[in-house]
C-alpha cells in the first residue's frame, strides 16, 4: 500500500481518542497509548501501520513528528494519557505528567482502576468473615431486577440506538458534550393524566418499598425530572452535584436521584461504574468515602441528591454503550418553558415528538408480569471505597484544605 502521510501531533491525539472510544481489542488501546506518547514528545517518531488484518504482521513505516500542540490540547492529551496509565495499574507512572500540568491529587487507584463487581463479591465475603469493622451506611441503594423484561424493552426502543429520535431531535453529542437538557412531570399530572408507560415507571420508583424505607423524604415529591445519556464505554461524567438548572442562581438538590441501566444481558455491561461519595457542597474537605455500582441490566441505583457523584470512565475493552435513564425527585423545581432544548422543560403534550409518544404509550396489560411488581427486586451491595482521593504518589489524601477543582485529577 502507498505510504501514509505523517500525522501532526494534533491529528495524533484526535486519532487516539477516536480509536479509544471505538476500541474493540487490546491492540486498539496499545495504539492509543503509542499515539499519545508520540504526540506528547518532541523527539520520537510515529509509526503508522499499513495493514488492518490481525492475521498478518503489520507493515510499519516511520514518520518524523514534531511537538506542535497548543497548551490546551497538550493538557487534554496529557490527561487522557494519564487516565490510560491509571486504568491499567500504572498510576505511579502518571505522577510526573500530572504534576507538570498542575494537579496536586487524583482519584484513588481503586476508583480509576476499579474492580469488577463480580470479583468484589468474593473479596467482600472473605473480608466480612475476617471481622472487618462495620462500614458507614452508604447514601445510596442498589436494586437488581428492578425493571421487568417488558419495561427494559420499552426503554431500549426509545434510548438504546444512537440514531433514535430522542438523541437526534436534541442534537445529542458526547465529545464535545451537548448542552444539558431534561424534562419535568408533576405528580399531579401523572395522577390525573396517567402518562402511560413513563408515568407507571415513575410511580414504580416512587413507591418502591426499598426506596421508601431508605429515603423517607421521598414522600415529599411533587415533581420528577427526567434525562438520559448514551455514552461510549470509555466516556465518563465528571463529579458533580445534581441541582436545579445546573446550579444557576444557587444550588438546590433533589430529594433523590436515580439511574436505570438500559441494556440486555445478565452480566455487567459497557461503561464504568456510577460513584457516589460522602462529600456535600458545604464540606470544606474532599470526600473520604465512596460507593460504586457497576452498570447492569434491569438495575436501579438511587442516592441522596445532595452528595457529589459521577461516572468513572470504562477501562479496558467492552462492547456496546452505556445507556442510562435518570429521574430526580423534587419537592419543588422551576419548570422552564421556552423554545428548543434546555433544563427542566415541561414534558411535551398535545403534539408529541416520536420519543415522547413511545414513552406515554400505555403498557400492554399482559406484559406487566407479577401482580407484585417488586417481587423480583433484590438489594445489592455497592463496591466500597475506603478512600476516594489520593496524592499523586498514591498515598491517602489527608490534607484538610479543599484543593481547587482543577487541581484534582478525575480522568474525565
Form type: globular
Strand content: 15-25%
Oligomer status: single chain
Total strand count, please?
18
Mean pLDDT: 88
For the largest beta-sheet, the strand count, sense and barrel status come to:
8 strands, mixed
Question: Distance between termini?
Answer: 37 Å
Percent range for helical residues? 25-40%
Overview of the molecule:
With 412 residues, the chain is α+β, with helices and mostly antiparallel strands. 28% of the residues lie in helices and 21% in strands. It has twelve helices and 18 strands. The chain has helices at residues 9-21, 26-39, 71-87, 91-100, 109-112, 117-129, 149-159, 165-168, 187-193, 196-206, 209-214, 354-360; strands spanning 45-49, 60-64, 105-107, 140-144, 183-186, 223-232, 237-240, 256-261, 274-280, 290-293, 300-304, 307-311, 321-330, 345-346, 378-380, 383-385, 389-391, 408-409. It has an eight-stranded mixed β-sheet. A five-stranded antiparallel β-sheet has the order 7-12-9-10-16, with no helix packed on it. Helix 1 runs antiparallel to helix 2, helix 2 packs antiparallel against helix 3 and helix 3 (71-87) runs antiparallel to helix 4. The protein is globular, with a radius of gyration of 23 Å.
Amino acid at each position: 500500500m502507498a505510504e501514509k502521510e505523517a500525522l501532526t501531533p494534533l491529528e495524533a491525539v484526535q486519532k487516539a481518542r477516536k480509536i479509544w472510544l471505538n476500541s474493540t481489542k487490546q491492540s486498539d488501546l496499545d495504539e492509543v497509548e503509542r499515539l499519545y506518547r508520540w504526540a506528547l514528545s518532541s523527539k520520537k517518531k510515529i509509526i503508522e501501520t499499513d495493514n488492518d488484518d490481525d492475521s498478518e504482521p503489520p507493515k510499519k513505516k516511520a514518520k518524523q513528528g514534531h511537538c506542535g500542540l497548543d497548551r490546551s490540547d497538550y493538557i487534554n492529551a496529557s490527561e487522557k494519557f494519564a487516565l490510560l496509565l491509571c486504568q491499567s495499574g500504572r498510576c505511579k507512572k502518571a505522577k510526573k505528567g500530572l504534576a507538570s500540568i498542575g494537579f496536586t491529587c487524583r482519584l484513588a487507584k481503586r476508583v480509576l482502576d476499579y474492580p469488577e463487581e463480580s470479583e468484589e463479591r468474593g473479596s467482600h465475603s472473605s473480608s466480612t468473615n475476617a471481622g472487618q469493622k462495620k462500614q458507614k451506611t452508604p447514601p445510596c441503594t442498589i436494586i437488581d431486577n428492578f425493571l421487568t423484561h417488558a419495561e427494559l424493552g420499552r426503554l431500549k426502543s426509545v434510548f438504546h440506538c444512537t440514531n433514535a429520535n430522542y438523541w437526534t431531535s436534541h442534537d445529542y453529542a458526547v465529545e464535545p458534550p451537548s448542552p444539558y437538557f431534561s424534562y419535568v412531570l408533576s405528580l399531579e399530572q401523572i395522577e390525573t393524566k396517567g402518562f402511560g408507560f413513563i408515568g407507571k415507571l415513575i410511580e414504580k420508583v416512587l413507591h418502591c418499598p426499598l426506596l421508601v424505607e431508605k429515603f423517607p423524604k421521598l414522600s415529599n415529591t411533587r415533581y420528577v425530572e427526567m434525562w438520559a445519556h448514551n455514552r461510549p464505554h470509555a466516556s465518563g461524567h465528571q463529579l458533580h452535584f445534581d441541582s436545579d438548572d445546573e446550579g444557576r442562581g444557587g444550588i438546590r438538590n433533589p430529594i433523590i436521584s436515580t439511574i436505570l441501566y438500559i441494556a440486555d444481558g445478565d452480566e455487567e455491561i459497557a461503561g464504568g461504574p456510577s460513584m457516589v461519595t460522602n462529600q456535600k457542597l458545604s464540606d470544606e474537605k474532599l470526600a473520604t468515602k465512596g460507593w460504586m455500582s457497576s452498570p447492569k441490566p434491569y438495575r436501579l441505583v438511587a442516592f441522596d441528591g445532595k452528595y457529589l457523584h459521577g461516572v468513572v470512565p470504562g477501562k479496558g475493552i467492552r462492547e456496546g454503550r452505556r445507556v442510562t435513564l435518570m429521574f430526580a425527585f423534587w419537592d419543588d423545581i422551576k419548570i422552564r418553558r421556552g423554545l428548543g432544548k434546555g433544563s427542566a422543560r415541561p414534558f411535551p403534550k398535545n403534539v408529541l415528538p416520536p420519543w415522547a409518544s413511545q414513552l406515554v404509550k400505555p403498557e400492554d396489560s399482559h406484559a406487566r408480569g407479577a401482580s407484585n411488581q417488586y417481587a423480583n427486586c433484590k438489594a445489592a451491595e455497592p463496591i466500597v471505597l475506603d478512600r476516594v482521593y489520593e496524592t499523586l504518589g498514591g498515598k491517602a489524601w489527608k490534607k484538610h484544605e479543599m484543593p481547587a477543582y482543577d487541581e484534582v485529577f478525575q480522568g474525565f
